[in-house]
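Handout, section 4.2: multi-component inputs.
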Amino acid sequence: MTNTRAEAFAPATMANIGVGFDILGLAISGVGDTVIAEWGDGEGAQLTRIEGDGGKLPFDAAQNVTTIAANAVLRQVGYRGGVRLSLLKGLPLASGLGSSAASAVAGAVAVNALLGEPLTREALLPACLEGEAAVSGYHADNVAPSLFGGITLTTGVALEDIQRLPVPLGVHFAFVTPNVEVRTAEARAVLPAQIPLKQMIHQTGMVARLVDAIYRNDLQALALAMEGDVVVEPARAHLMPYLYEARALAKANGALALVISGAGPTLCAVCEGAQVAQTVLDALQAFYGQKGLQSSGRVAQIAERGATVKLF
Amino acid sequence: MTNTRAEAFAPATMANIGVGFDILGLAISGVGDTVIAEWGDGEGAQLTRIEGDGGKLPFDAAQNVTTIAANAVLRQVGYRGGVRLSLLKGLPLASGLGSSAASAVAGAVAVNALLGEPLTREALLPACLEGEAAVSGYHADNVAPSLFGGITLTTGVALEDIQRLPVPLGVHFAFVTPNVEVRTAEARAVLPAQIPLKQMIHQTGMVARLVDAIYRNDLQALALAMEGDVVVEPARAHLMPYLYEARALAKANGALALVISGAGPTLCAVCEGAQVAQTVLDALQAFYGQKGLQSSGRVAQIAERGATVKLF
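Output:
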C-alpha cells in the first residue's frame, strides 16, 4: 500500500469508424475522463466528487459506471477496504465519444493502480464492460480502445475477440459536437431489423477495404471505406442536424471524409494533417453557429495508448 | 506479328474464401485452363478445339466465354484479322473453382499475347468480365484473382474496386470435388433476400478479422474467420453432400478449417503444410468413396501470379 493516490486518464473513443458498425473503434488523443482513487473508509468504491457532468451523473455506487467498474475490480481481487473516487468528466455525455466507456475504464484502471496493479490491463476488461453495460450495453467497441488504445476490432467481449489494428500515420480528425441530444437507445431503435443481402455484401466489402487501408496506410482508401456505410448512417441521418451539409462543407475545406462518431451527434471529419483539420473544424463550428446551434469541437489524432496512470 | 502461337494458362480460383461472399477470391496454384491462340482466317476469334470438357462447352463464338473474351480484346485493339483458339480445360465445370473465369481470362490473355501485348494486364479486365458474364454474371470475384493472381478484394468491377491483399505464407489447401452438380443459379437462389442486422454485424466482423489475419499471417485466425459465415453457408449447406461430416473429418485429420469453394460443390480444407493437406485430401476422398460418391481432388497453394503466357 505504497500509493496514497492514483489518477487514471481514459481516452474518449469513436465507435464504428464509419462503416464498421459495432465492430470497430479507436481511441482519441487528448480528450477523456479522469478518475482519482484514494483510500477511504468502509467497504467498496464510493464517488465523493463528480465534476464536468453538469450535475447529471448519479453518485449511487450501484448506478454510476465508474463505481460499478471500480467495485468489479475490488471484487475481482478480493479487496474489502474502502476507496474514494473523484470523477472528472473531460468529454460530454451521450455525444458519441464513448463517455460511459471512458468513465468505466478510468474507474477500473484507477482502482487497480491504487492497489498496486494486482490485475493486468487485459484482466480489467470484464470490470470495464460491467460498468459500460449499466449505461450502454455489454459492448466492447468503446471500452476496448479506451482500455488498450489505438484501433480495435471487436467481434465479441472476450479478449480473443479483440484485435488491435495498426495505427495509420498522418490522420487528423476534426470532432464537432452540436448541442443536440441523440440518445443511444433512440439511435439503435431507428436501425432496420433486416437488411437486403446486397447491402450486407456492400458493407462487408467496405469493412474489408477499411481494414486493408489501415494496414496499407492509404488515407484516401481509408476515407472512402469509412464513408461506405449504406445501412446505419442512412437510418440515423435524420437524428444528426445538417449531416450532409456538414459533410459537403468539410470536404470543401479539405477533409477526406466525414462520418458520425459512434451514435452521434458528434461528427468526425477525417483529414490529412492538423492544419486541414483545424480549418475544417472552424468551418463546421461557424456553420452550426449560423444555424443557431452551439457546438464544441477539437482537433485530435488516434491515441496509440489506452488509459494512462499517474501515482502519488 | 512475330509470334506464331501464344499459350495462356489462367489459374483456377476460389471465390468467397469462406466468409467473404462476393468480395474475396484467390488464385489456386497448379490448376487452370489453357488457351492456345494462333493466326487464322477470316475475322475474329474462333474455337477450333476444346478438350477436357466432356463435350459440354459450345463452339459458337457468341456463346463460349473464351471466344467472347478473346473477341472483346480484338475489338478493343481494333484488330480485324482471324485468330484460331484451342481451349484445354484443366478444371471441372461448375465445380466452384472458377471454371468460366479461367476460360475467359485464358482467352483474353492468349489473344493479347499473340498480338504482341497491345493491352496491359489491367486493360484486359473488361474483356474477361464480358466473357465471365455470359455464364456466371458480371462479377470480378473469380476473374480478378485469375487475371492478377494472389488474393483479391473486389468491391466492384472497375480497376479501382479491386485490391490485391498480401499472400500469407504456409497455407496449403486440400480441394475435393465430389461428383455432384451444383448449379451457380441454384446456389444463388437459395440465399436469403434479407438478413437480420445482427448477422450483418457478425459477417462484417468476420470479414474484418479475415483481412486482418491475412495481413498478420496468422493462420489460426485466418481459419477461424473463414469459417465465420453465418449467412451463405447455412443457406447452401444442403446442396453440398456431407458438408459437416467432411468438416469434422478434415479437422480430425489436422485441417484448420473447411469451407465451400465458391458456390460449391468443391470443398476446401485449409491446412498448415503440404503434408497435412495431403492427409486431409486422402481422408476426404476415402470418405466420399464410402458414401458412393466419386471425387477428384488436389493439394494446392495460393498462386502468387495470375495468368501466365508462353510464346512460340
